[in-house]
Amino acid sequence: MSEKSTPAREERIEDRGTNRSRTPQSQKFLDYIGSGWADSDSGLPAKADVAVFAAKRRAAVAKKFGGKLIVIAAGPLLTRSNDTDYRFRAHSAFAHLTGWGSDAVADSVLVIDAREGKHESLLFFRETAGKTSQEFFANPTIGEFWVGQRPSLEQVSALLDLPTKSLGNLAGYLEGAELIDLSDAALSEFVSELRLVKDDFEIAEMRKAVAASIKGFEEVARNLGAATKHARGERIIEGAFFAQARAEGNDLGYDTIAAAGAHACTLHWIINDGEVKEGELILVDAGVEVDSLYTADITRTLPINGKFTDTQRMLYEAVREAADAAFAIAKPGVKFREIHAAAMKVIAAKTAEWGMLPVSGEESLEPDNQFHRRWMIHGTSHHLGLDVHDCAQARREMYLDSELKPGMIFTIEPGLYFHENDLLAPLEFRGIGIRIEDDVLVTESGVENLSAGLPRSAADVEKWLAELNS
Description:
The chain has 15 helices and 17 strands. The chain is of the alpha+beta class. The chain has a five-stranded mixed β-sheet with strand order 6-5-4-1-7. Strands 9-10-12 form a three-stranded antiparallel β-sheet, with helices on one face. The longest helix has 23 residues, at about 200-220.
């Protein structure tokens, strides 16, 4: 470059993410693209059924943290790659306290003002932009041309029965105030424990999530044959469930485990790139998240060719017996940890019966032994709701050491897993992994199996597969 040349203006690195295209910026174009549009639908929706429940939840938070300004953020969009974002899902505490589910707008913030003499809630979010704004057509992250129209402040306020303000006003509202947010341990703990007992709205949504998930498992069963014909048959199974999750709900509640053969012994196998072979089992752990963001969590272990072998059947029925033992004791007043203990009595007895333990089944149950846990290392139950492992920030005395109460929803999911290279397992067991997982609701006298629409016994599983593939 000669000394008299004028260097080009240096481009900022942050401006290079969308170099593939540039929108016109002249005032003539801005005036033109902002004109000639019909008015958007400005009608107000009916108040959502969840609104009254969400208001009670916010009142509980305000009472607990009186005198405070409480900030609950929905969270931002998360980058997947360069300028491509993951599908947005609001933080569970935000969804619980606002009632805003799959339609929630990224970066929204709920403020519960429990300061002296106030006691009000406000929802701040980025409402839809006017047609004359540059955002309307030029912003690929939030612009209406790119991602669709956002609702107005009035529409969201009507839907959630909650006062709303533009997100641009949030900083001014919070300025100078002493506030707490979800980084505060006490707040995080309280909003988690607030979900331990589900209200009527939550129970109804969980029923929807389970019903949608049952449809997903039916599609899994129908696709077993196709899966055996593909080099990555586990992906065929994963895809069959995902299609139902998107058709019947919002998304998956978590990454599907489609674990055929020995892959079933890897507890969180989500690679799902293996073959699906005749004569083996496939363990499918999957759940549909509905639009309210509540999710099911169900596991079934299926014989790929429709029939269990004698060994597979024996192991499967042992797991079912452990699950039935947990079901038998589950009722109000029983401690949450006792559900696991009931299932483990069966697992210990079975592994002792098969000659796998260095001590008796009773001795293995002693805290310092637990040898049977080699073949079932995970817990038998976890709470379920907005998160697949719901209420995870709750105190120990409110979770494991708590007594069951009507309205609680959790899983019962014992299993047995015999790795291919496990020299302490009988040769014929190796490479077999089995789990049976159901979602249960505590009632006044016991529990209701919400996922009872799926078969549990070996005989019923075989009959179900035959009917779906006839």
